[in-house]
Design goal:
Helix content is 20%, strand content 44%. The protein is of the alpha+beta class. It has one domain: OB fold (Dihydrolipoamide Acetyltransferase, E2P), CATH 2.40.50. The chain has a 6-stranded mixed sheet with strand order 8-1-2-11-10-9. It has a 5-stranded mixed sheet with strand order 3-6-7-5-4. A hairpin with a 2-residue loop joins strand 6 and strand 7. The longest helix is centred in the first third of the chain and has 17 residues.
Length: 170
């Protein structure tokens, strides 16, 4: 019986760990969310200085109030076709845990939607797709009126050798 109680306690902990406020945004008609505590700021598109020999999804760097911030296009990072930027396209500056500590990175998204307070009971685990898919960057699926929001573990999304190298170069 104690084993069942421990399992229940772990399930409740996982639910409450994912519960909270999320900034939601769209990419190619899908809605995503990032925990609000990871967000530093949201800025409109600005000129990005390209950096040679970086992966396609790395757009380059920006100078944000005297600080050099690497910028990547989330569409390209997820293998979604690139589109022309519009007046709704923006850069979300997030703070992530890198090998060298906390770093700020800009991610380009199609548009920012809203901040939602999502309860743990509204979040389900990522479904098994029957094949070996890399879904470790998905924190969970939030069931909302009008559809599902894919909640991202932004530390995992941005944890690649290329991004780490860009962070160290900046």
């Amino acid at each position: 019986m104690a084993e069942a109680t421990d399992t229940m306690d772990q399930a409740v902990k996982v639910m409450t760990d994912r519960e909270g406020k999320y900034l939601t945004f769209s990419l190619a008609e899908e809605e995503y969310g990032i925990g609000i505590l990871k967000i530093k700021e949201i800025i409109g598109m600005m000129p990005v200085t390209s950096v040679p020999k970086t992966p396609e999804f790395v757009k380059g760097v920006i100078n944000l109030r005297g600080k050099v911030i690497p910028v990547l296009d989330l569409r390209l990072r997820f293998g979604i076709a690139e589109i022309d930027y519009t007046e709704r396209t923006c850069i979300i500056v997030v703070e992530v845990e890198g090998q060298s500590g906390r770093v700020e990175i800009g991610i380009v998204v199609d548009s920012v939607s809203e901040v939602l307070n999502i309860k743990g009971s509204e979040i389900e685990d990522t479904p098994a797709f029957g094949t070996k898919l890399d879904t470790e960057f998905i924190l969970g699926m939030a069931k909302m009126e009008g559809g599902i929001k894919i909640l991202l573990d932004i530390d995992c999304v941005l944890a690649t050798r290329e991004v780490e190298a860009l962070q160290n170069a900046a």
